[in-house]
Design a protein that fits this description.
By secondary structure, this protein is α/β, with parallel strands linked by helices. It has 9 helices and 10 strands. It has one domain: TIM Barrel (Alpha-Beta Barrel), CATH 3.20.20.70. The longest helix has 13 residues.
């Protein structure tokens, strides 16, 4: 695993696990260790300040909204000139005042997990919590605040395949200027549903689910592997309106998170990095496997 000092950061996107605390106990969690202390905000700022180029900083956790100083973290990173993306389960964002606080701090991009769309039975099966109302309120608050919404949905065979249509319908109803909906299968990371992973949906099956909803030939989506700057293997990135000539509107990204023979999803990624426990940079999936909180 190649480790880089902050001054040599080459990653387009850097994942920052600012806390290992969480207010949910999902069946699939890449960071289930809860005993590790929160990341030091001053050391984080010093590390990011030394990056040689503007970077997408993804604030993740467990659940980053567990930190009371999250607005300050956002503000500090924004002042350094980087783009901040918050990855969250969305429970706290069901409060309009909290979303306003984050926006006032400079947040403009939010990624919310929507494994159950608007169906509490799906959430209970996948995330061990009936939370559809809060998830939908979070989506409403984010889009009403004119922030860019990303959603993430893990698809399980014979459980929530219908979430593809429901998520698309929910977000499309807002007619967002831009939003990205992500659908993937189960990744063998951290704590995960081993039975669901054993019966994982294939990339082809996910393509068919999406194609049936947007009304196109599933094979057509195979041609979007590297479209619009998408450099990740085993992914597809495309607009819901396949005739679109702009980057605006509703987009979909589907991904196959099955591991290779060595147990990696995307080994030695050159696109997605992670700040290590000693504030250096490493490929994201490699550090998850071999870092201090690896598995």
């Amino acid at each position: 695993m190649k480790i880089l000092p902050p001054e040599e950061n080459k990653f387009e996107t850097v994942m920052v696990d600012i806390t290992h605390r969480c207010n949910m106990h999902c069946a699939n969690c890449y960071l289930p260790n809860r005993h590790i202390p929160d990341m030091d905000i001053d050391r984080l700022e010093d590390c990011i300040a030394r990056f040689p180029k503007r970077t997408n900083i993804r604030l993740v956790g467990a659940e980053p909204t567990m930190r009371s100083d999250l607005p300050e973290i956002i503000s500090r990173i924004k002042k350094l000139g980087h783009r901040v993306v918050l990855l969250t389960n969305g429970l706290r964002l069901s409060h309009e005042s909290y979303v306003k606080e984050l926006r006032d701090a400079g947040l403009r991009h939010v990624y919310v997990s929507l494994n159950g769309a608007d169906n509490d039975d799906w959430y209970e099966r996948i995330d061990n919590l009936r939370c559809a109302e809060k998830k939908l309120k979070a989506v409403d608050n984010i889009l009403s605040s004119r922030m860019v919404l990303n959603t993430g949905t893990i698809l399980l065979r014979n459980v929530n395949e219908g979430a593809v249509k429901r998520v698309i319908d929910i977000v499309q109803a807002y007619e967002p200027r831009h939003a990205l909906l992500r659908f993937k299968n189960v990744g063998a990371l951290g704590r995960y549903d081993r039975e669901a992973e054993r019966k994982n949906l294939s990339m082809e099956e996910i393509q068919s689910l999406v194609a049936n909803v947007i009304g196109c030939d599933p094979q057509l989506l195979s041609s979007y592997t590297l479209f619009k700057g998408n450099h990740e293997k085993n992914t597809r990135l495309f607009p819901v309106d396949l005739t679109s000539k702009t980057g605006k509107g509703l987009w979909i990204k589907i991904a196959d998170w099955k591991v290779d023979s060595d147990g990696f999803i995307d080994r030695e990624s050159t696109r997605r990095g992670r700040i290590t426990s000693d504030f250096l940079l490493a490929p994201f999936f490699d550090d998850l496997r071999y870092g201090d909180d690896g598995f």
